[in-house]
Design goal:
The structure holds four protein chains of four kinds. Chain A is mainly alpha-helical. Helix content of chain A is about 40%, strand content about 10%. Chain A has two domains: about 30 residues; about 140 residues, 2-Layer Sandwich (Alpha-Beta Plaits). A three-stranded antiparallel β-sheet of chain A has the order 2-3-5. A two-stranded antiparallel sheet of chain A has the order 1-4. The C terminus of chain A is likely disordered. In chain B, about 20% of the residues lie in helices and about 25% in strands. Chain B contains four helices and eight strands, in the order ββαββββαβαβα. The radius of gyration of chain B is 16 Å and the shape is globular. Chain C has one domain. The longest helix of chain C is centred in the first third of the chain and has 40 residues. A three-stranded antiparallel β-sheet of chain D has the order 1-2-3. The N terminus of chain D is likely disordered. Classes of the chains: A mainly alpha, B alpha/beta, C mainly alpha, D mainly alpha. Chains B and D meet through strand 3 and helix 2 of B and helix 2, helix 3, helix 10, strand 6 and strand 7 of D.
């Protein structure tokens, strides 16, 4: 009995498993495809927004082209890959009247009141090619001036394409038709073509 | 911890799994590691990891053993002098140790005698740099680094873990 | 007399040219079908960008292959290395000659048609052996060894299965075998020789190196087996030959067991084509479903199952014919 | 061996290859073939290189050569601050990065005695288990690809895509997650995500029978895995294998069960084992583990609503945080086995020493012994059944 089972029934069962496999793939053959033809079709899904791309600056609610950033350097120092460079603004040169007032104050021995530098940064550069998207900078920012962008279609032709000037990006976001960024983008495109 | 009852150890310390993850820390003399490994093999332990810590007193080699059913993690520790970082290989007992030992050689330059294949494993074959060896100035006393727990028994003259209190007394 | 020879010769030349076109066309269509079929099984569209629904993709791929550099590896035997793909491809053309596509559509009717096919199909294993050996590559060598062992093993049950058909029809002429069968499925040889059909089909997978028996080139084991070192049209010829062999094997199977060009209502090449392509689709379907067998298992299937079954089939056939 | 002597041996004996190939060939018998499988071989999953000595197709000796993807994470750990090392943990094992995230933050929490809020623990369990599913699916597809079946990987990725969509919401990425933080997790799970998980569980549960029908029951596959790569419990002991490899040899050992960390002691799940000790055992264990993972997920999602606390503790460590001096060893169960992290601190901003114990490393070390005397095709099958992630082996 055992030999019959092993030598006749088992092979038949084994062969049947092959037909089951064909049935499964045959069923999927008849089913609808699950992929999309990318350039012609894109997925319009709310879930795409949850993708965390490179960081970008958040503007002030009242003047969206100026970031909330206070140039505290927290993001730059805590970044594991050192891909953020924030430059503080220099104090403006005192106007003649202010200079005069300062000189007077100095002469009197009072406390000199220098014009203070604006808090928002003069430059905010991100080297995205180094970034590991850990989100540390977003978390440590004391004024919530950083957030993730969510452009899933970001591509570049060279390493330099991933060096972002985030201030400029914020400006172009605030004013969609910003001429500066467009021009620069065009220059980048033609550069890429030549390269 | 009956395994090491009749074994010549330098120090046995009962660790705390909740705070350091290791149940027993056993300090051994360099020549006894193979015998200790054999003992653990027959007690049904398996090897988790072999790695070194570069401290001020020397290179401390940690052999982590765990048990599949008893759930008891034992850390065998051998302190090697910086001048002579050589120890017997336990690859004859736990074959898995071969790679761990080669890795330790790569990173810390510890030579394991009798390892069947003592060539670089992760670093390039020609590389003679041992990246995890610290500059002498940066080495920290092991007593500060280790949290071995309560000391149960201690051989005479073994004061690796006591330095902290001495420093405090000074 | 001379006119007769000339007509015969002319006919043969025309037939050969037509076969060449047929082989090329088949390769293109099959590659496209295979990729589309695989795509749909895997729930993706397959080639889609070149031409309507990607129909021109195989053509473009062929052009790309032709444009690639012909590389000969260092230390390879140059003559044998480039002889191998040619040796693999050229005999294929001969294989198409005796196959009856339609009532009058035969390259050359010959009495030993099936024997010619089986004989010349043997060339392929020689070509694979040369390819693997000459390319001075260890993976290639292993692939070549596998190819030969496999071809030798699977030729035997295939031959025995064919003999079964030869017994009941009493001829080796493919046209005659076809005409002896009726138009309706129950009048085909498959009813008389069901076991022979199965043995033939399984051997066909083995002979053509198709999955799950694609061991000579099993890329997850032997990188690419015997054609590891081939680039450009060297690879292209092997590729074409593989598809051509598939077509030949399926055509022969159609003739032997499925009534060839005979079919319900009106006989003709359309029936032949439909049956052949149905078998080809089965081959494609199987490829995209199963894992690959191991080499010793492959030989075990052959020696322990197919060969006894084929022998049994032959003996049974002989017995019933005597009755 | 200096470079000069290497050159001389080459000239004298005309032995080719680099240092490792020559080193290997010293022990070869006569009339055998030395084969370099990898680092660019389709079934070594990346850049593993195995040197084989073969007689015909039978393997006499095998030696894996590592280091083609070595990045020295342990050194990086000594340079970066405690907090900054977390992204590295997403890159060690691309298959199951959250387990490594967890092993590291868990070790640091143990070292510093940090209590994690209950809700954060639940989120960790949910995301980690989802990631385990994704990891097993990736293994399944790739293993079948090794065995010559092309279609299963696309079905596996169909499901895996759904998991990645879910995981993208709390982590922001799809492959190399680094979303665990010392003291909790980066982002909370929102309603939508929880709903997505709830929807996903029954869908995936219905897919499992299809996997079984298409592949597990298939006779060709069964013949390719049954009795291949025998690893007796003794081999497991000697090489320190863990995870599905150990469980496939009948050892009921799962860190989640034997050394429960976080809140795993609250869940009701089985630790599947197989006594066959072969590739089939490891295969079946992983398939069953997927079903068990779904069970854990269900319970965790239900428990999430009642869990207290936020997704991260108050006053969680910041990038300039200093860990107290001491050491801690923490182990978690990843898709491949026991992931261990040993952190040693001297009380400064950066770790003094970080040791990463990777399961693939120990599992692969047994390959040379297991592969002795098998066919090349079986070696491929064994390598696949070990579920190797090369970045994890090389670290």
């Amino acid at each position: 009995m055992e030999t019959i089972r092993r030598n006749i029934l088992q092979p038949i069962k084994d062969l049947w498993s092959l037909f089951v496999g064909l049935k499964v793939t045959g069923k999927f053959f008849a089913m609808k495809q699950v992929t999309v033809h990318y350039p012609r079709q894109v997925i319009e899904d709310e879930n795409l927004k949850s993708y965390a791309g490179h960081i970008e600056l958040v503007g002030k609610p009242k003047s969206p082209s100026i970031p909330k950033c206070i140039s505290c350097q927290m993001c730059a120092t805590s970044c594991p890959s050192g891909c953020i460079k924030v430059t503080r603004q220099k104090a403006p040169k005192p106007t003649p009247e202010q200079q005069k007032a300062m000189d007077e104050a100095k002469a009197k021995g009072e406390k000199v009141k220098k014009p203070t530098a604006p808090k928002n940064p003069a430059g905010f550069m991100l080297d995205y090619s180094l970034c590991s998207l850990c989100g540390t900078c977003v978390e440590v920012c004391p004024v919530k001036s950083l957030r993730f962008s969510n452009d899933i279609y970001l591509v570049g032709r060279s390493r330099d394409d991933f060096k972002f000037d985030l201030l400029e990006r914020l400006r172009s976001q605030a004013e969609p038709g910003c001429p500066v960024s467009e021009k620069k983008q065009q220059a980048r495109m033609t550069d890429g073509n030549h390269g | 911890m009956t395994v090491f009852e009749h074994f010549r150890t330098l120090c046995i310390a009962k660790g705390n799994r909740a705070s350091s993850g290791v149940d027993w820390n056993v300090f051994l003399e360099r020549d006894y590691i193979v015998d200790a490994a054999e003992l653990l093999k027959y007690s049904g332990f398996h090897l988790e990891s072999v790695h070194a810590i570069d401290g001020a007193e020397g290179m401390l080699i940690n052999y982590l053993f765990d048990h599949f059913t008893q759930g008891e993690r034992i850390c065998l520790r051998v302190l090697l002098n910086h001048e002579d970082v050589t120890v017997d290989s336990i690859a004859g007992i736990f074959q898995g140790a071969e790679w761990h030992e080669r890795e330790t050689y790569d990173f810390h330059g510890v030579m394991f005698t009798n390892n069947p294949n003592m060539v670089n494993l992760l670093l390039p074959a020609e590389s003679e740099v041992h990246p995890l060896v610290k500059a002498p100035k940066k080495r920290v006393a092991l007593a500060e680094l280790l949290s071995c727990g309560e000391i149960e028994s201690q051989a005479e003259g073994f004061d690796l873990l006591n330095q902290k209190t001495e420093e405090a007394a000074q | 007399m001379t006119t007769f020879i000339n007509i015969q010769l002319l006919y043969l030349i025309i037939a050969l040219v037509a076969i060449m076109a047929w082989v090329g066309l088949n390769a293109l269509v099959l590659v496209y079908c295979e990729r589309k079929f695989a795509g749909h099984i895997q729930r993706r569209p397959g080639p889609f960008e070149v031409g309507p629904h990607g129909a021109l993709q195989p053509l473009i791929d062929g052009l790309k292959l032709m444009g690639k550099q012909l590389l000969t590896p260092d230390g390879a035997d140059k003559v044998l290395f480039w002889l191998a793909p040619i040796l693999s491809f050229v005999p294929v053309l001969l294989l198409f000659v005796p196959i009856p596509y339609g009532p009058v559509l035969t390259g050359m009717e010959m009495n030993l048609g099936i024997l010619l096919i089986l004989a010349f199909a043997g060339f392929n294993s020689l070509a694979l052996l040369l390819a693997g050996w000459a390319s001075n590559n260890k993976w290639g060598l292993l692939g070549a060894a596998r190819a030969v062992a496999q071809a030798v093993a699977y030729e035997i049950p295939m031959l025995l299965a064919v003999l079964g058909v030869a017994f009941i029809t009493g001829t080796l002429n493919l046209t005659e075998i076809t005409t002896m069968q009726g138009a309706w499925p129950w009048q085909w040889n498959i009813v008389l020789q069901p076991l022979g059909f199965i043995v033939f089909l399984v051997s066909a997978f083995g002979e053509t190196n198709r999955a799950p028996f694609d061991l000579p080139e099993g890329e997850s084991e032997l990188t690419a087996g015997f054609h590891t070192e081939y680039s450009s049209m060297g690879f292209g010829l092997f590729f074409m030959a593989e598809y051509a062999y598939m077509v030949v094997v399926c055509s022969v199977c159609t003739v032997l067991y499925l009534g060839g060009f005979k079919g319900p209502f009106i006989d003709g090449w359309w029936w032949f084509l439909a049956k052949t392509y149905a078998l080809l689709f089965l081959m494609i379907w199987v490829r995209w479903t199963y894992p690959r067998v191991r080499f010793d298992q492959l030989l075990n299937i052959n020696w322990k199952w197919l060969l006894p079954l084929a022998t049994f089939n032959l003996l049974a056939t002989a017995f019933f014919i005597k009755l | 061996m200096s470079s000069e002597t290497v050159f001389q041996t080459r000239a004298e004996d005309s032995i080719g290859g680099d240092f490792y190939a020559q080193h290997f060939q010293e022990g070869c018998e006569e009339n055998t073939l030395v084969l370099n499988m990898g680092p660019q071989h389709p079934s070594t999953h990346g850049v593993l290189r195995v040197i084989l000595e073969v007689d015909g197709e039978y393997i006499l000796r095998a030696e894996p050569v590592l280091g083609y993807l070595h990045r020295m994470h342990e050194k990086m750990g000594e340079v970066k601050s405690w907090y900054q090392f977390i992204p590295n943990m997403g890159r060690v094992d691309y298959g199951h990065p959250l387990a490594w995230n967890w092993a590291y933050v868990g070790a640091v929490e143990k070292l510093a005695g940090i209590e994690v809020p209950e809700r954060a623990e639940f989120i960790r369990v949910i995301t980690c288990e989802l990631n385990r599913l994704a990891s097993h699916l990736l293994w399944w597809g790739a293993y079948l690809l090794d065995l010559g079946a092309f279609t299963p990987i696309l079905y596996a990725f169909d499901d895996r895509e759904a998991i990645l969509d879910i995981l993208q919401r709390p982590t922001g990425s799809r492959l190399t997650y680094s979303s665990f933080r010392i003291g909790g997790v980066q982002t909370d799970l929102d309603e939508k995500t929880v709903q997505m998980i709830r929807d996903f569980i029954p869908i995936f549960r219905e897919r499992l029978p299809m996997y079984k029908a298409l592949v597990t029951d298939n006779i060709i596959l069964r013949k390719r895995v049954e009795g291949i790569g025998e690893m007796s419990p003794d081999v497991i002991d000697r090489y320190g294998c863990s995870g599905p490899v150990a469980r496939g040899s009948g050892i009921e050992y799962d860190v989640r069960r034997n050394e429960p960390y976080s809140i795993y002691d609250r869940f009701d799940f089985e630790v599947p084992t197989e006594d066959t000790c072969c590739a089939a055992g490891r295969y079946l264990v992983r398939m069953e583990e997927m079903a068990q993972t779904l069970r854990i997920l269900e319970q965790a999602v239900d428990g999430l609503d009642k869990a207290e606390g936020g997704c991260i503790m108050e006053k969680a460590p910041k990038p300039n945080w200093k860990a107290p001096a001491g050491e801690a060893w923490f182990a978690v169960e990843s898709g491949r086995g026991k992931v261990g992290v040993h952190v040693v601190s001297d009380g400064s901003k950066t770790p003094y020493r970080i040791k990463l114990r990777s399961p693939s490393y120990s599992n692969l070390s047994s390959f040379a012994e297991v592969a002795e005397g098998v066919l090349i095709a079986d070696a491929v099958s064994i390598l696949g059944s070990l579920d190797l992630i090369i970045p994890e082996v090389d670290r």
